Amino acid sequence: MKQRVQEMEAEAAKLREMQASLDAQNRDLRESKEDIDARSVFVGNVDYGASPEEIQAHFQSCGPINRVTILLDKFTGHPKGSVNAPRVGLSFYT
């Protein structure tokens, strides 16, 4: 019986360690996402036929852009006419 209790305590300690590790990873991911969100730019009224390459070329004079995401209607798959563009630096806002 004592051996079983010790096994359960060891397993509980292992689970606490795993939970602490996952909490740390989630915190890092959340901070990373917040950092990306802080550097992202939302652009509305974008031509429905515009490609990500055209949009990136248009905003290239503002500085380097990581990626361009054209928002799509989830039911039809057609562009919504808006774009999210995370930037490398913050100089775009000045």
From TrEMBL:
Keywords: Coiled coil, RNA-binding. SUPFAM superfamilies: RNA-binding domain, RBD. Residues 5-35 form a coiled coil. GO terms for molecular function: poly(A) binding. Residues 39-94 form the RRM domain. PANTHER family: EUKARYOTIC INITIATION FACTOR 4B-RELATED (PTHR23236:SF12), EUKARYOTIC TRANSLATION INITIATION FACTOR 4B/4H (PTHR23236). This is RRM domain-containing protein. It comes from Eremomyces bilateralis CBS 781.70. The lineage of its organism: Eukaryota, Fungi, Dikarya, Ascomycota, Pezizomycotina.
